[in-house]
Amino acid sequence: MDKLELFDAEKRFLEILWAREPVKSTELARICQETLGWKKPTTFNMIRKLADKHLLKNENATVTALISRGDLQRQESEALLQQSFQGSVPAFLAAFLEGRRLKPDELEALKRLIEEAES
Amino acid sequence: MDKLELFDAEKRFLEILWAREPVKSTELARICQETLGWKKPTTFNMIRKLADKHLLKNENATVTALISRGDLQRQESEALLQQSFQGSVPAFLAAFLEGRRLKPDELEALKRLIEEAES
DNA sequence: GATACGGGTTTGTCTCGACAAACCTCATGG
DNA sequence: CCATGAGGTTTGTCGAGACAAACCCGTATC
After folding, report:
1. Is residue B51 part of a domain?
2. Cβ B113–A102 below 8 Å, yes or no?
């Protein structure tokens, strides 16, 4: 995954795409019209821009994402971790715990994840 | 903490401030000149903008941050968690583990943090 | 062969953040 | 007094992202 920098509008658009894909481009334009208030060219411009970035493809008037929601989440998490916590997950959690307590079931879930990661 | 949206240049600047504060405004201008290549007005404009946002104060030509590095980190972490993981720390960790394995000492550190959080 | 519609692109406007040239004011010292 | 430097502000340029008006092309329907 190369350098990936998504802007706000791009994220909003991708959320819509992920919820519906694969979807026809004109259908997408209609949905964006309704939910984001975008005119047709705005949607098509967005499609082309993201296609140029290889984040989706538009073939035979059908749009499909080439990146998954999970991929993007991971990528953004990594970025935050690198930028703010030198890439350290414990540092992230530590900073986090100073601002908010976790609920018992969250703690349990974390423990289980860590046990699994140890194997 | 109200709505907080920091731009890239603002973060870069704050990193410098945190490393040196409290510091005289002209000194800051000199450092930004060296490290960021900024001219004097750029630095002063930044100071004023962040002062307007109550993120720092400039009194008697001495600049002091009103927000700590940790506060900003926590705030950004929260934002990412809310936006991408419905605020769930376990969901964050789970997504993260799919992309990268943690080192043994990181796992140990996490365990200790969780134990402390349980008390 | 006019009209309509699906599937687009070209080009331009608007806003906003990043940055800086030129200017201002006051204190100090030669 | 006049220069110099500290400590600023006003104003404007530049670039980029968000968005859209107007246009284009093929097909198919009347």
Report:
1. yes
2. no
